[in-house]
Design brief:
By secondary structure, the protein is α/β, with parallel strands linked by helices. It is built from eight helices and eight strands; from the N terminus they run E-H-E-E-H-E-E-H-H-H-E-H-E-H-E-H. It is about 45% helix and about 15% strand. Helix 3 runs antiparallel to helix 4 and helix 4 crosses helix 7. The relative contact order is 0.08.
Length: about 260
């Protein structure tokens, strides 16, 4: 007959190097019991000592912290909620604040976190240097709201253009065609305003013609050009950075078909 139970504490319960056969033996003892002399006893697992339970809980919490740190390390340093650090009005950023007027902490947030998040490594240092040149030497040429709006638009447009160019290259390779009509040749930034979007697109896609169009060419546009000419790098075949960029001072509705071209 099976009598009352016996508590069993195998040594391996306290050993990190648990034997491979331990699970099977443990299950057998819990299921079939243990013979002690002529008496067969039920087996119940004894709870580990409090010291061991505390150590186990600490190890589990440390493992959770490491997993959280790994997840945070993979997460981009820039997050949308960081926009709350900048002056706002109603439901948008204050349109009257210039980047040059920001305190040191927020300038570092832009230079060391946001801009590296937006631009790929291939052009990151040059773009940061060019924009820093603008807000340092021409403090009235770059507003916080305009910068964020423009560069967020750049992120979306740059991704779509890159996908389009990759798709066209695949189509060209599939048909063994070298026809220029199948290639992206021109990007138009219509009603471009300050023109920063066209400038950064022209620098990112140096082999594509970029045309900014507006009724008036603002002074800040030339400040952006100067920044990239000083800090940018000319692409292969370029005499100087942004040689693929043009500005048309006119109403974009009057553009002729030959102006638009085949891009």
């Amino acid at each position: 007959p099976i009598s009352s139970y016996a508590f069993v504490t195998p040594l391996w319960l306290r050993d990190d190097n648990r034997p491979s056969w331990a699970d099977d033996l443990e299950q057998s003892l819990l299921t079939d019991g243990l013979c002690i002399g002529d008496t067969k006893c039920k087996v119940k697992k004894r709870r580990p000592p409090k010291r061991d339970r505390i150590a186990h809980n600490e190890q589990r919490e440390a493992s959770k912290r490491r997993a959280l740190e790994r997840a945070q390390a993979k997460r981009p340093r820039w997050q949308p909620e960081l926009l709350d650090k900048f002056d706002a009005r109603d439901h948008s950023l204050d349109p009257h604040v210039f980047v040059a007027n920001l305190d040191k902490e927020r300038l570092q947030l832009i230079e060391e976190v946001y801009l590296p998040f937006v631009f790929p490594k291939s052009c990151r240092e040059e773009v940061i240097g060019a924009l820093k040149h603008v807000w340092t030497n021409h403090p009235k040429s770059l507003r916080v709201k305009e910068m964020f709006e423009t560069l967020e638009a750049f992120r979306l447009i740059e991704k779509q253009i890159s996908l389009l160019m990759a798709r066209r290259r695949e189509e060209q390779n599939a048909t063994s065609s070298s026809s220029i009509s199948n290639q992206l040749t021109t990007i138009y930034d219509l009603a471009c305003g300050h023109g920063l979007l066209g400038v950064v697109l022209a620098y990112r896609f140096a082999d594509v013609r970029v045309v900014c169009v507006d009724m008036e060419r603002r002074t800040c546009f030339d400040h952006y050009l100067k920044g990239f000419q000083l800090h940018g790098k000319a692409a292969t075949g370029e005499a100087h950075p942004l040689s693929n960029l043009a500005f048309l001072e006119q109403d974009f509705t009057t553009l002729r078909e030959e102006d638009i071209g085949g891009g």
